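DM from R.C. (forwarded with permission)

"hey, sorry to bug you on a friday — could you get me a structure for this? deadline for the figure draft is monday and I only need the backbone to look sensible"
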Amino acid sequence: MPVTASVSIRPATPADAALIHQFILDLADYEKLLDTVRATQGDTEAALFGAQPRAFADIAELDGEPVGFALWFYNYSTFVGRHGIYLEDLFVRPAARGAGAGKALLANLAKRCVDEGLGRLEWSVLDWNAPSIAFYDSLGAASMDEWIIRRMTGEALRELAGV
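My reply, with the result:
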């Protein structure tokens, strides 16, 4: 990675739908979860660029070339009394890691939080992903070890919904 590399962050546009979907697949492959991806490029495009988008994305470029993305949405904390940002996905291509793209994506979201008066920026990381955990720790991100994520999908979701 050249020392003179320049990282920039920009909001994603509809023209980025295929790129973002590929980043999602690349992230899933890195996380050893590629077989669980059901989202299509059309799903990604609709979620981010449909009539009422509920998710958003930013693109990291290194010397004008897309190398990573952050996909996020607003959440709300009843305890803080403010909205926040939940970072669903953060991914930088392996060849571009170490150039500052991941930090720039997070800094961009942190600035959005500050500028919009949001209460927090949060995300999850897989417990085996030591390089990412070390990176997040280096930025001052706190581990929320006392919280356990719960998820309901598929048949359990349908059964609870009564359908």
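R.C.: lifesaver. The first helix runs from residue 17 to 30.
me: no worries. The mean pLDDT is 95.
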